[in-house]
UniProtKB/TrEMBL annotation:
Ligand binding (Na(+)): 165, 168, 171
Enzyme class: hydrolase
Function: Protease subunit of a proteasome-like degradation complex believed to be a general protein degrading machinery.
GO biological process: proteolysis involved in protein catabolic process
GO molecular function: metal ion binding; threonine-type endopeptidase activity
Keywords of the record: Allosteric enzyme, Coiled coil, Cytoplasm, Hydrolase, Metal-binding, Protease, Sodium, Threonine protease
Protein name: ATP-dependent protease subunit HslV
Organism name: Heliobacterium modesticaldum (strain ATCC 51547 / Ice1)
Length: 186
């Protein structure tokens, strides 16, 4: 039997105007049967609280990439888009980094982005995105709520994760939610 992988993450983000919310569940699963931790924090604030990032994938890999993203945001003086593109480029081309298995959702008052090791920086058309094992379920729920309700982004993200936790065995309902209410001024 080979090495068992730790997995089990769902991150969902919703952006409406300058309001953005990123939410993540707390479950880390070892293999396909054992819940190792139920209260992991996979969403955190960066750059003086102006950026929210959520991570999915191998825990050590994701944390390494999150630290690199934070350094890039500092380097580009808070410009999340430039920092994300630079990270994706480095992630794809660096011999060490390209082996890291993770994805990041990063958001500020202006942008909602998915960053991957394939060099992708994707901004969704509809202001809704999700990653991780329960990502497809959370994405579907969040899109439906965003289209057919007046709920705030934070409540949409929270409810989307609850729906995902009811379907995906690698997702629980121990939710960490971070929100930014931007003013639209820069």
């Amino acid at each position: 039997m080979g090495l068992m992988k730790m997995m089990g993450t769902t991150i969902v983000a919703v952006k409406r105007g300058t309001q953005v919310a990123v939410a993540g569940d707390g479950q880390i699963t070892f293999g396909d049967r054992t819940i190792m931790k139920a209260t992991a924090k996979k969403v955190r604030r960066l750059y003086q609280g102006k950026v929210i990032a959520g991570i999915a994938g191998s825990v050590a890999d994701a944390l390494t990439l999150l630290d690199k993203l934070e350094n890039k945001i500092q380097e580009f003086r808070g410009n999340l888009l430039r920092a994300s593109v630079d990270l994706a480029k480095e992630w794809r081309t660096d011999r060490f980094l390209r082996r890291l298995e993770a994805m990041i959702i990063a958001a500020d008052a202006d942008h909602l982005l998915v960053i991957s090791g394939n060099g992708e920086v994707i901004e969704p058309d509809d202001g809704v995105v999700a990653i991780g094992s329960g990502g497809p379920y959370a994405l579907a729920a969040a899109r439906a709520l965003a289209r057919h309700s007046d709920l705030a982004p934070g409540e949409i993200a929270r409810q989307a994760l609850v729906v995902a936790s009811e379907i995906c065995v690698f997702t629980n309902d121990r939710i960490t939610l971070e929100e930014i209410e931007g003013t639209g001024e820069r």
